[in-house]
Amino acid sequence: MLRSVSREDALLEKAWALPSAQKYAPLLSQSWRSICGPTSVANVLRSIGVKSGNNPFSRFGVRAMSLDQIADESRPLLPSEWSVHTVRLPSVGALREELHRANQPTHRFIVNFSRQPIFGHGGGHHSPIGGYLETEDLVLVLDVNAGYGPWLVSAQKLFDAVNTFDRGDGQSRGLARFDRT
Hints:
By secondary structure, the chain is an alpha+beta fold. It is built from seven helices and seven strands; from the N terminus they run βααααβαβαβββαβ. It is 29% helix and 23% strand.
């Protein structure tokens, strides 16, 4: 694994102590019936108190999904006080502005990123963001692939992974932002 990812116990423990991160325990992992997109949505739903299995969608869970599909198919599953929007990020500064909300109980995020800039291999992936360690400028990515598990990455490196194009729809990657009104 490249040095851009941290699994240092003390930092992970600090990140898991963030209010939003605690809402994700226990974290669901993707399975042969539901890959990263649906499983990430299931984790967000569970974190806001909605019961969900690995695939909350009515369609089959083993299919590549764009960021817009994640948002569109999540909308009808949310309680009335929650909404979801896609956020495309023009800069690492814009990502950090969003990440400041990640520790608030009124926000949840799913990040759509390419594994290549972070791990040196791999394709597109979705995972919830568990929180942001602002002082360290580290993002807690709750990777739904059990082989990776949760990890920390700098906002810059995460932006590099988000600032890529999704093969499925040709648009830039970004965040699905879930907001409680």
